[in-house]
Amino acid sequence: MATAQAANAYWARLWVQHMCVEYSPLLETLRIVSAHVQQAGLTQSEDPVADFVITLPRLLGKKVQFEAPGEDRRSFDESWILSLSHALDLADADNYRFLLLSRMSREKASECHFRLRQALTRLEDIG
Fold it and tell me: Distance (Å, rounded) from C-alpha 33 to C-alpha 39?
């Protein structure tokens, strides 16, 4: 697992990059799904996107902060998820692995990767 000092230095730089928030269809979808999951009190789902949103708090060991749909600001957790997606888009395996392992164990990172890929594939399929 990455050292806490390395992770803090990395996130300090990354956070500044996300202060200027652009609209993200992925983020807006996750916010809408998160709001629905909370409102409906769902604890499981066959939909990969809802399943990712439901499972992520257990994998991180903490509640995930999603802003309300349409908000201009972006939470740390939201920035982290978008960074994971961006690293996958760029096929940046080193950054992707660092992002995962800076916040969770290898076993949980493997599950997070599986669920995130399923969610992203589902969103790509529906366009």
Answer: 10
